[in-house]
Specification:
The chain is an alpha/beta fold. The protein is built from nine helices and eight strands. A four-stranded parallel beta sheet has the order 1-2-5-6.
């Protein structure tokens, strides 16, 4: 695990060191690298970092150090911020409602895309407020839906949350299996429960079912 990776040159350096150590120890299986995305420059170089070496196993988002690197005005580790919000349009004298936004969506989505393109695994980083289990669950679930395969845990209570959240919903898995049964070869257009299904939704269903089967096999 390599912290605060700023560019592909950091991975190249670690790659060379590991190659020397492997040769010295006579290792045949290569040591893999997991990069932590924790700086503004790292986010700017995320695609190059993800593809920097065949050793790359995955990447994790480090929100606290990233916030400091960007000069963000928050002391929170992950999660939202009540000041980062959008307001509804004004309507007479009525009080305007507002919605809290996700500070990390852009960075996380970009990391997920970079990892998917490079064939490596994206992870969400730590959620600092250990007492806020609902906030932790919401943050983890957003990361899971977006494409992350796991998250860091700072406390045992977060381990159970992660196990639950990073498993596909049984109802969605059941529907995905119906899609695959209706379109075994992924071709054509079908209607299931009033929803159009084609090759694109078949691919989505495959993702869901393959993950469910993998988790079932591990259990």
């Amino acid at each position: 695990m390599v912290p605060k990776v700023e560019g592909p040159e950091d991975i190249h350096y670690v790659d060379r060191l590991l190659a020397q150590l492997e040769a010295r120890a006579g290792l045949e299986r290569p040591i893999l690298v997991h990069a932590l995305l924790e700086t503004a420059r790292g986010v700017n170089e995320v695609e190059a970092i993800a593809a920097a070496s065949p050793r790359m196993q995955g990447m994790s988002l480090g929100p606290a150090d990233l916030a400091a690197s960007r000069r963000m005005k928050t002391t929170r580790v992950g999660g939202g911020h009540p000041g980062y919000r959008v307001l509804a349009d004004p309507s007479g004298d009525a009080e305007r409602s507002g919605t809290q936004q996700d500070l990390w969506h852009y960075s996380l989505a970009r990391m997920v895309d970079a990892c998917a393109a490079a064939g490596i695994l994206p992870f969400y980083g730590p959620f600092g407020d250990i007492k806020d289990v609902e906030g932790c669950e919401a943050q983890f679930r957003s990361a899971f839906i977006l494409g992350c395969v796991g998250a860091w845990s700072l406390h045992p209570v977060q381990i159970d949350i992660a196990k639950q959240v990073f498993s596909p919903d049984p109802h969605e898995v059941a529907f995905a299996r119906r899609v695959i049964e209706a379109i075994p070869d992924g071709q054509g257009v079908h209607m299931i429960d009033g929803k159009m299904q084609d090759d694109a939704t078949w691919k989505q269903a495959k993702v869901m079912v393959e993950l469910a089967d993998l988790l079932e096999a591990r259990e």
